[in-house]
């Protein structure tokens, strides 16, 4: 493997200007993450303390092995939605190490509207379950929730990917032999009662933890019976009488200790093996990425400069370097794990699509995880290219991405437009994880192009009717809102709020996140290319 030779001048004005812009985006990101983690009302903090509950961050700190990494999932889900205070969609979730084992932790935050479940909260829980199923990770749930956020109940209850799907998935995960361990640290009401009920192990905190299908107010309204939460579904009831819970805990800290012991006795899976070597840092500082990524998303740059700052020793074995140059493919190591990298260096042509297809096939056969660095405006368009079969060649790439069985990881480092999103393993192509950089944009096409398409459709209608084209002020009236909504709905925060990704990343931290993600993915066996592909259109 050769060291990538950089052509970046870190002293240039261009570098400095880009660096400043990205530094400010990363600063904003850090502030948003801090807010999501810490902003809680005085009232909620006081109530938590009165109840003798340990605050969320402390619960996580006690649960996770000291000095081990934590890969948070969708910390900015639901950002800007509801009353703008439902941080992380009301939950914290992430992959961490408990008793030496990689697990996924999912925890309701009782300090956000009593830990109630919002529509985005359901989506985040389902995403966490998918991560567990794809990567064979045990799921630890810290339940402390008032159940459905009732004013939005129609958005979280009836449909196929609403609340019921969570319990359905729990049964499927159990069948898949994926351990599910729940600590009841607050209320598990109504549907929420099924979270512990469907789990393999249930730890129940006395006094604060309660499980019931109908809470005391509902019981009183329905039957007239007056009963406290503890009498109705407390730890004593469920550990001694009903058998719903398995382990009686004196308080939060005791429950967390029991959780750690349970994880400690789980059988450890053999991790899948991918080619590895001793990890080394990149030769170039990853933070230089801040100065390399152009502040204008439509400015081209060489993705090799990014790769050089992500991979071990900045070493890269490039595949077909002279062919299909708008897509850079090749092998490298990240934190010691071999990966096959595909990075955009322009729009996708037939040759770059065919190169991608061959490269994906090779990695899949060799059991090498795939990393997609998306910065793509789409596949090339125009008469010449249609005649040359660009759709046919794009199809091969999309097909290969879809059917590849090795773990796939996607980072949207710039644009993610059109079918380029598909070929480069967008969310619909089941990458194990997908992240955005704060400068990234996503959409069917850029706002300008979308606006131009709509204006030209209108003008075609007018021309068919024998009328003159739209005057400029009407054109501006059509274009303005389209461009505006593309800016608003295409940015990284809108994406992450809607859980189209697993989080927004500081570009400089991407290498470390990828290392953790590859490690987590290897808990599931590699399926191998036993089934082959479907039929390629030649
Ligand atoms: N839907 C909507 N909002 C709810 C809610 C629900 N299911 N449960 C609680 N809230 C809101 C409260 O109105 C309050 O809002 P506010 O901060 O704007 O005043 C906030 O969540 C905290 O509730 P509060 O009762 O003050 O906190 P607490 O810590 O004393 O108790 C609960 C929290 C969850 C134990 C308690 O609110 C409760 O029992 N909720 C109802 C549970 C239930 O029956 N759910 C059935 C849904 S399937």
Rounded mean pLDDT score: 95
Low-confidence stretches: none
- Distance between the ends: 33 Å
> How is the main sheet built?
8 strands, mixed
Give the overall shape, derived from the CA principal axes.
globular
Radius of gyration: 25 Å
Write up what this structure looks like.
Strand 11 and strand 12 form a beta hairpin. It contains 21 helices and 16 strands. The chain is of the alpha/beta class and about 550 residues long. It has helices spanning about 15-40, 40-50, 55-65, 120-135, 155, 165-175, 195, 215-225, 230-235, 235-240, 250-265, 290, 305, 350-365, 385, 390-405, 420-425, 445-465, 470-490, 490-495, 510-520; strands at about 1-5, 70, 90-100, 100-110, 140-145, 180-190, 200-205, 210, 245-250, 315-320, 325-335, 335-345, 370-375, 410-415, 435, 440-445. The chain is globular and about 75 Å long. Strands 1, 10, 11, 12, 13, 14, 15 and 16 form an eight-stranded mixed sheet that branches. The chain binds coenzyme A (COA). Coenzyme A binds near residues 116 and 189.
